[in-house]
Every structure is written in structure tokens, then in C-alpha cells.
Amino acid sequence: MPRMLSNPTAAHTSKSPAKAKDRDPVATGQRDAAVNRAASHNYFLTDRFEAGVALRGTEVKSIREGKANLKDSYGLLKDGECFLLNAHIGAFSHGNTMNHDSLRTRKLLLHKNELRKLEAQTRQKGFTLIPTRLYFRNGRVKCELALAKGKQDWDKRETERKREADREAKAAVARSQRR
Description:
seven-stranded antiparallel β-sheet, 6 helices
């Protein structure tokens, strides 16, 4: 018969559930820090690439606070490097005089073969690089770049019509299942 301990110990847990719940979902990577919703409306998005972003410390803290906006931003390939332009990252709330410039050009970190592929594809007429979202992965800020071709007004109307027809079809199916 095994010997009984006078003071039985409970299994050690690494983190209490309350502490895990208190952690910010943006910082843990469960939720995107910024999403460019206008991108899918204004462009046909084809290939997507994940790129690291070269940031300063106060920029990372501002992104964690949710002060990033990708609405008018775009990617630029120049001299074998990729840059993110017009991405707005607001000033850090507890920053000082050494705070970052909110609209500065930031370098995107991609592999050489990805850069070559993007360069060849953006040379085609009408294609550009659009950032679709900013998010955290393993504590690092990542930017999802999409190869995009601009939509005309009639393309946007057609997309809206399809979306509306799908919505009505789903509603009809749901109504018929309720009866």
C-alpha cells in the first residue's frame, strides 16, 4: 500500500485563469491590432504576404494600445527593399519628447525571394501593395501585405450586389428552417 502524505499538494498550475484573462487580446495575438477594411472594397486582393515591421519601442506600445490605422497606407518597393508608407501609428500616451513621428516611413522585413516575386508582380500594370492588417505573432508586430489591383465603380457595385444576394439567400434558408 502506498504511503499517504500528511499534507497532500495540488498539481502546480503555471498561470491562474484570472491572469490569463486580464492580458490584452491584441498583445497576445488573439485579435488584430489594425485592419484595413477599405482594402477589400477598393481592390481585388490576390496574393498575401506576411512581413515583419521595423518599429521603434513607442510605436509597438502604441499599436498595443490600438492606435494604428492602415486606411490610406500602401507598400513601396525601392532598391530591393520594401517600405510601408502613410501608416498612421498614434503617439504613445506615456511617451516623452522622444516619441515617434506618427506617419513616418517604416521598413518591411521580407525574404529576398519574396521581394523578387513582389517586384515582378507589381511591375504588371495596375498592381500595387496594400497592407490589410497589423497583428502580433510571438510578441512581434507583423503586417499582412496583399497584392492588389484597383476596382472600378462598376466592380464595386457588382460586388455589393453579390453580397446582398448571398445575404438574402441565407436569410431565406434560415426562415425556412425555423418553420
